[in-house]
Amino acid sequence: xxxLIIQQKMIGDVLTTSxxxxxxxxxxxxxxxxxxxxSHTYPVVENNPFIDHFVFxxxxxxxxxxxxxxLGKTIKNExxxxxxxAYSKLSSNLLTLLSKAKVKISKYKSYTAFLYTHPVKYRSxxxxxxxxxxxxxxxxxxxxxxxxxxxNIKPKIYLTKEEKEKAKQLLMDxxxxxxxxxxxxxxxxxxxxxxxxxxxxxKVIDQIVNQTQGQxxxxxxPKQLEEAQTVFNYCEKETQNHIHMAxxxxxxxxxxxxxxxxxxxxxNEGGAVNMAKALExxxxxxxxxxxxxxxxxxxxxxxxxxxxxxxxxPEFYSEKEEKELKKEALTLYKEFKPSYFSESxxxxxxxxxxxx
Length: 356
Hints:
Blueprint: E1 2-6, H1 11-17, H2 19-27, E2 32-38, E3 53-57, H3 59-63, H4 65-77, E4 82-85, H5 90-99, E5 103-107, E6 118-120, H6 132-139, H7 161-173, E7 182-186, H8 198-212, E8 215-218, H9 225-234, H10 237-240, H11 252-260, E9 264-268, H12 271-278, E10 282-286, H13 293-296, E11 304-307, H14 309-312, H15 329-335, H16 338-354
Parallel strand pairs: 1-2, 1-4, 2-3, 4-5, 5-6, 7-8, 7-9, 9-10, 10-11
Helix pairs in contact: 1-12, 4-5, 7-11, 8-9, 8-16
């Protein structure tokens, strides 16, 4: 059996969808499993033992209809038995159609259902602590074997021993003490509408340092240095003494290896949170006001906590769903004061420090 799974775009989505490979490989150990992903997301699934082959959706393909059709021809020539389109957008609709696979599976949408042999209706309410992002992806496997949809699998990232050791040495060389609390801060989101206000984030970091005397790393890339520095400047002087701005992941794998040595990742919801969970690192997540918490608050417990404006101001959502509020995100963010969740953060930090 030869299966292609398509999941384009974001790192968090690619990581989460990778659970399907483990489920399929356990059930069908001789199946040949291929994963079509955007090339920049490869580091989160690198070394995954359940994925046999990768197909890369490159920036060049994204910009060219001709190259997209060429990719479709390549997929057709692979003669896949099953194509699972977890992305379910125009480009993946086309690639699935061109594949000529006998079994085509995707999320049910009224305007694309005819393209698939098995359009699957997603749940709107989670049944388990896994959350909708996990549960609905597993539902895609129900058309192959109903038992597969009940499988409980968490996303995993596979770091090498060398990557872990190199990151450990970098931390030690940077005068960071691994016997003391160490926190990775997801200081910036993927855009303005997914970034907690910088002054508020500084207050959160102040609380972390004040309560734990912990060491702080920022997750940012060089082009975000100015914004990261702004958060640093907003922090209290004592807090600044605990922040190691010069230590950050120069690439995604280095970020992952550094996070592996942290006690928790705290900050904006997004790919970094999903990656930390896949490394079995505790997380405290601050959701953007327009992102649906039910979908992405996966495997919540005392070690993985998330907060959303809706938890404290449900009246803002009485007439609109979260995704309808994207245009109002910056205004709503101002309402989402750190004081609302300071007690939740306090409990989380106590749990982390007590179990260090």
